[in-house]
């Protein structure tokens, strides 16, 4: 696998997270992050957050926290965090086998990857509960763009924000790659 430029990396866990690949291994530890640098509240019913390579529509009450490694989306009164990172592949498209490399070891035995579509991006995803935490993980691509999106919260609180998270993920678009 050959990965070209890296825009952002994600580490959704309150412990160290790793975005695995045979060619690239990048990580980010987030829990909770001090300062919440450069936060932008979503003041309208939906407002667009735009990165160099992708965009997502944020529901009212959600804010973006731009970090060097990733972009986290949180509610002020929220229970979890949606985090997105992205990569651009050197070739014309992301080879299907690369998704297997990225997902390897990223979810527990017994959890099953399913085909998913989030906006104009498609790929694989998994939802599971581990150690009292709910996890939603999506490995998505379109053309040269590879996006890793995660959401996690306490398992008992997952129904509070999960409808919002799924609604926002359904608006993902590629803006500069693909």
Provide a brief overview of the structure.
The chain is mainly β.
- The helix tally amounts to 2
Radius of gyration: 15 Å
What percentage of residues falls in helices of 4 or more residues? 10-25%
Mean pLDDT: 77
The CATH homologous superfamily name equals: Mog1/PsbP, alpha/beta/alpha sandwich
* Beginning-to-end CA distance, first to last residue: 17 Å
Identify low-pLDDT runs.
Answer: 6-44
Give me the secondary-structure category.
Answer: mainly beta
Sketch the topology as an H/E string, one letter per element: EEEEEEEEEHEEEEHE
Into how many domains do the coordinates divide?
1
Q: Could you tell me the number of beta strands? A: 14
Query: What does the overall shape look like?
Result: globular
Provide the CATH architecture: 3-Layer(aba) Sandwich
The largest sheet is: 9 strands, antiparallel
Strand content range: over 45%
CATH class: Alpha Beta
Describe this structure in words.
- With 178 residues, the protein is mainly beta.
- The protein has a single domain (3-174), classed as 3-Layer(aba) Sandwich (Protein Transport Mog1p, Chain A).
- It is built from two helices and 14 strands; from the N terminus they run βββββββββαββββαβ.
- The strands form three sheets. Strands 1, 4, 7, 8, 9, 10, 11, 12 and 13 form a nine-stranded antiparallel sheet that branches.
- The radius of gyration is 15 Å and the shape is globular.
- The relative contact order is 0.21.
- Mean pLDDT is 77; it is low at 6-44.
């Amino acid at each position: 696998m050959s990965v070209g430029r890296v825009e952002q990396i994600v580490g959704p866990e309150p412990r160290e997270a790793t975005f695995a690949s045979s060619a690239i291994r990048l990580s980010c530890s987030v829990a909770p992050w001090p300062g919440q640098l450069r936060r932008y509240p979503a003041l309208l019913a939906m407002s667009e957050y735009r990165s160099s390579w992708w965009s997502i529509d944020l529901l009212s009450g959600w804010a973006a926290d731009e970090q060097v490694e990733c972009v986290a989306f949180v509610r002020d009164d929220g229970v979890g965090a949606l985090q997105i990172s992205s990569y651009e592949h050197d070739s014309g498209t992301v080879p299907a086998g690369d998704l297997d490399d990225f997902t390897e070891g990223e979810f527990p035995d017994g959890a099953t990857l399913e085909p998913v579509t989030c906006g104009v991006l498609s790929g694989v995803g998994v939802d599971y509960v581990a150690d009292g935490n709910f996890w939603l993980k999506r490995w998505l691509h379109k053309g040269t763009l590879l996006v890793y999106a995660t959401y996690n919260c306490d398992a008992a609180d997952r129904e509070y924000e999960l409808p919002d998270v799924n609604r926002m993920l359904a608006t993902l678009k590629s803006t500069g790659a693909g």
